[in-house]
Structure formats: structure tokens, C-alpha cells
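queue> pop job 88
queue> type: inverse folding (structure -> sequence)
queue> payload:
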């Protein structure tokens, strides 16, 4: 993150705090004044399962084992984890944050990422991270949305855990359709070759951050670009993953979120 970007982020935070002082926020869940997401509603979020594949992070009956899909040696991510399940109320909050201009929800939503990173699963590696890389938006979509929701989450995570935010390493150089519009088997083609990583990635251990991990196509495309630029290892952490009880089928690593 450049010095200018850091100052701009700080000023934006101060502005939000000032508005909260004069105009108390209403909870995005119940409408109660005083919180963007009140403590009672925050407790309604369902954490991701504990028993997951050690690589892709999908539910798996045997912890610390790999699911059959992860035998694929071309899967570029060393490890993927999600903080919570993509069901209500979190699903609604992510929609507000991502599509309704509710940037103010970034800070309370990032608390779930912080909690996930504090789990024992990450403790042996957090101190080795060279940078946290938010999944980038194409400049055209960034201008339309006004902010990158993944960067907002990553920035909050970095500030709370004193990790380096690296927005300079990865760019989306080709516009793509929104993944939510596409069938899972179309998602990999949609993002193939859409990302370019900088040579400064050489030798770094990086953590990708995104909002939702669905099939893994976007995260995989990002990881492939970073590894092609020389990154030593790429892990990923997302805010949410699909709830398999809501009809989500198992992924293949040729797809992604």
C-alpha cells in the first residue's frame, strides 16, 4: 500500500467515525441504533465447519486429510479457508457491502476474518506471511462500484493483525463478467488470464483475501498469476463459503469463486 493510499484509508476511517458520532448507525440485521452490526446479530453468523479438507477447506469427514479433488497437482493454492458459511444473515450483509454501497460494513465483517486467522490452523504460518493481497477489481468495475470490497476487508485484517497489505502485486488486466452470473463450469474460462502479477512477488509467501469462495476459479486464477511471477506460496482466506446444505455441489479445481 502506498503512503498516499494509507493516508487516504486513514482519512476515510476518520470520516466514517465522525459520521457515526453525529448519525449513529443502525444494525444491518435488526435496525438497532449504535452498531453497523450489533453483537446479538453478529452471533447469528454460522462459522465454517471445523472438519475440512486441509487443502481446499471444503467440508471433509476427516480433518487434516485431503479430499479426492485435491489430488490434482495443478491446484495452485496451498491452502484455502473461509471464516463462515454463506447463509443468512451473512449473505444479506455481503450483498449490502458488495452491491449496495455499504462500505461501512467492511470493518464489522472483517472481524470474522480476524477470528478465522486466530484459529490454530493458521498460527504456525501467520508470522511468515510476506503480504496480504486482496483480489483486485478491473479499473472499470472499481470506478463503477467506488471501492474494492476485498481490499476493504484485507485492509481491516492487516491493520488489526499488523500484516503488510500488498495492493501493488496483482492487477486485473482484463474485464470479466460477474462470476455470480455464470454457471460453475464457465467461471474458470471467464477469469483465465485476467490477472497479472508483478515481479516483486518473487519469493514471497502471500495470503489472498476475497469475500466469497464458491468454486475457487477467481482465487485459483489469482494464485496462478502470483506463482508465475515467482511467489513462493499462496494461501487464501475468504469471508464466506457456500453452505452445502443449500444445494452447493462439490467443486473441481478447474473452476473457482
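queue> result:
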Amino acid at each position: 500500500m502506498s503512503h498516499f493510499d494509507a493516508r487516504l484509508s486513514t482519512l476515510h476511517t476518520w470520516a466514517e467515525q465522525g459520521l457515526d458520532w453525529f448519525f449513529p448507525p443502525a444494525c444491518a440485521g435488526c435496525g438497532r441504533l449504535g452498531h453497523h452490526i450489533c453483537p446479538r446479530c453478529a452471533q447469528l453468523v454460522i462459522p465454517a465447519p471445523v472438519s475440512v479438507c486441509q487443502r481446499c477447506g471444503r467440508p471433509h469427514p476427516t480433518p487434516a486429510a485431503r479430499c479426492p479433488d485435491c489430488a490434482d497437482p495443478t491446484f495452485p493454492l496451498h491452502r484455502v479457508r473461509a471464516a463462515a458459511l454463506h447463509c443468512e444473515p451473512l449473505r444479506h450483509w455481503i450483498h449490502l457491502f458488495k452491491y449496495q454501497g455499504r462500505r461501512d460494513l467492511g470493518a464489522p465483517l472483517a472481524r470474522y476474518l480476524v477470528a478465522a486467522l486466530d484459529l490454530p490452523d493458521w498460527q504456525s504460518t501467520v508470522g511468515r506471511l510476506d503480504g496480504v493481497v486482496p483480489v483486485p477489481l478491473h479499473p472499470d468495475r472499481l470506478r463503477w462500484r467506488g471501492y474494492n470490497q476485498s481490499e476493504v476487508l484485507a485492509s481491516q485484517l492487516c491493520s488489526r493483525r499488523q500484516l503488510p497489505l500488498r495492493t501493488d502485486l496483482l492487477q486485473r488486466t482484463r474485464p470479466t463478467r460477474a462470476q455470480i452470473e455464470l454457471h460453475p463450469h464457465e467461471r474458470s474460462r471467464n477469469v483465465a488470464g485476467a490477472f497479472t502479477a508483478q515481479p516483486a512477488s518473487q519469493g514471497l509467501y502471500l495470503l489472498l483475501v476475497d469475500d466469497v469462495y464458491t468454486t475457487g476459479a477467481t482465487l485459483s486464477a489469482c494464485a496462478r498469476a502470483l506463482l508465475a511471477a515467482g511467489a513462493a506460496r499462496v494461501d487464501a482466506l475468504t469471508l464466506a463459503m457456500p453452505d452445502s446444505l443449500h444445494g452447493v455441489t462439490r467443486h473441481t479445481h478447474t473452476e473457482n469463486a
